[in-house]
Amino acid sequence: MDGQDRENSGGVLQQLLLARNHSKAAHGRVPQLPLLPEQTPAQAAATAIGRTAETLYHLPVQTESVTLNGASLAEIPELLPEGALLMILQGKGEETGVMALCRQAVAALIEMQTCVRVTARPVPNRKLTRGDALMCAEFANSLLAELATELGGLDGYSDWGDFRYATFLDDPRPLQLILDDGLFRGLTCRLAFGQDQVRQSTIFLALPRAASQPVTPPDPEPVAEPRSGRSLQSLSGRGADLVSSDLVDSVRNVPVDLFAVLCRRKITLGELRSLTEGAIISLPRVTLSDVTLELISGEILARGKLGEAEGYHAIRLHDPAAIADDMAGSSSILPGVEPMSELMPEAISAALPVDLDAPNIFLADSGEDQERDMEEIAPMNTG
């Protein structure tokens, strides 16, 4: 029976060789054997992870699942493994990403570097430190390089090799401030480390989508000989639109510094020089619901209420339209005084706080009242 199988297999192999040598020789082309199926992105990522662990530490890896998808900045904290080691990755310029290794993965990598084997001991419930991150930084950098090699032919993954380990993060909450707002390419891999697959681990990776997508200029369109002046005008208008679009995108990416101002207080230069650590500065009486959001030039953009959100100072902005409606609908409390909407329409439409340096409309006298007062005081002085 085995001899018959070998005879049949030999016959199939001979047929393939004959097909390679003679099937397309008559047409002057070199015959080709059937091509292997193309590797999927998930398979390529699994290959990169396995090669990294084998090259660095001879660590056996069994990949269970690999997921490549997109994620927004708000979704990243929900995708992180619980209690994971967070490593901030730095790319070209100011581009940043994050890699998260679960506790089981961290334990497997450290055990291979210290004990040269993966044990089945339970992972201690301790807080991961910067030392753990430094022990895993080499694995992170090598994995990024391997992913760039395996996924380099795919759109959006060619620049992954430019990212490297930058720093350690002990709390996931500052991720919203460290990472740029935008779309990210995410990778979630569930795998098992060790000869007996004792460490069921999860690796999560998120890199900016804009950084990974190469910018390819559009193919220039063939410009034929213009037949009339109308074609020239259409081409020139088209170029103006392209320039305008590029300018708009550049302006929108310009950073803007905002300042939240609760109150202002003037002090002397002597008081300023006498300030020391622990000194108490008295502030004027203010309300937390009257905080202004200003530019560096002093221009007021909005106002709101000072509070707290997720452990950070935050400002809940007021609705300018609602404030304007309330101010416009309120009647005057003084007889003979016009409503506020007629006195200051610009301030109401912008919904900005009244400048303290501006004259008070209820206390300032008109020009006619001042002349009448001066006429009444003059005879008294002469008498």
Offer a concise description of the structure.
The protein has helices at residues 2-22, 41-57, 76-79, 103-114, 130-151, 175-178, 209-212, 229-252, 269-273, 320-329, 340-343, 345-350, 367-382, and strands spanning 61-72, 85-90, 96-101, 164-169, 183-193, 199-208, 258-261, 291-295, 300-309, 312-317. It has 383 residues and is an alpha+beta fold.
Notes on the protein architecture:
By secondary structure, this protein is an alpha+beta fold. The protein has a domain at 41-212: Chemotaxis protein chec. It has helices at residues 2-22, 41-57, 76-79, 103-114, 130-151, 175-178, 209-212, 229-252, 269-273, 320-329, 340-343, 345-350, 367-382, and strands at residues 61-72, 85-90, 96-101, 164-169, 183-193, 199-208, 258-261, 291-295, 300-309, 312-317. The strands form two sheets. It has a six-stranded antiparallel sheet. The chain has a four-stranded antiparallel sheet with strand order 7-8-9-10, with no helix packed on it. A hairpin with a 5-residue loop joins β5 (183-193) and β6 (199-208). α2 crosses α5 (130-151) and α4 packs across α5 (130-151). The protein is elongated and about 100 Å long.
